[in-house]
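Before a colleague's protein record goes any further, I have to sign it off. Thanks in advance; the entry in question is below:
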Amino acid sequence: MMKRLEARWYIDEYEEEETPNHVILELAKLDFNIVQALHCEELKAISLWWKDFNPKEKLGYARDRIIESYFFITGVYFEPQFSRARIILAKVIALATILDDTYDIHATLEECRQLAHVVERWDKKSAEILDEYLKLVYLTLINLCEDSENELEPSEKYRASYLIEGFKTLIRSYFQEAEWLAQGYFPTFQERLEVSLVSSAIPMLCCASFVGMGDVATKEAFLWVNQNPDMVRAASEVARFIDDVIGYEREHSLEELPSVLDCYMKEQNMTKDAAVIRFEEWTRDGWRRLNQAFLEPTAVSPVLIERIFNFIATTHVLYIHMRNGFNEPTNVKKYISLLYVEPLCI
């Protein structure tokens, strides 16, 4: 569960107990409202950035998910000291969603190839070969990374290169999927799984979640997370298996590349119901590996490890408890209201 939502609900429950400590209750409400006010200020800044980008009008094919992105990131870290990290990561996930939709449902294969090519080059002059709508996406991506670097202290500037490389790797996976779709290729289960673990964006987002954090995010931490340790692999698998099962009908309605679930069903000659049972087993195994990694000592601070754990906990909440809430925004509306619109009465 998302810690922020748990806190909100528990305050209500605690108030109904027979003998609550009213001093603690009042402090809890004050703390919740103070942090809520900070979140609202961040949400305002992010919304203004999104309004300047204006994808709703300029990129009509893409999902408009800036509020949902911030809601997701609040599940990764809600604490006041991570304000800078939250703003950066919310923008990253919102733009990754735009890139995903561009490759999945709109761009031609040649446009996908051109965008992948210029992203590898990573300079603004390369944008001239792109169509106007792709130019907007590409320049917004570069500007986001530049703006994020400008928010960093001089000793932290190296982190921007990890953010850029994360986007490059993500777009390579998107292009591979677009190429398979255009060719009518039905990949093997293992081929599809390996690419889709990257296109889930979890490896990139785990790294990106460290970018705006303070001194706790060391150079060693960035090296560790980019080596795809088992915790990141398990997180990617859990996210992918949940997404494939919960989002199966939506993905099929878009006539996309066969999912990991489709490839497994074909390879094993299984029914969907039987394959779903296997995916649910793998999801539970992924959670066991996540819990084990979370408890075992590593050279990386537990504060950073917790972000990866929170990513998947929030994914679980959005896709299962909130019924694919990221893609069905009406399912998260009341929770967004609880966290950002309704202060607690004191």
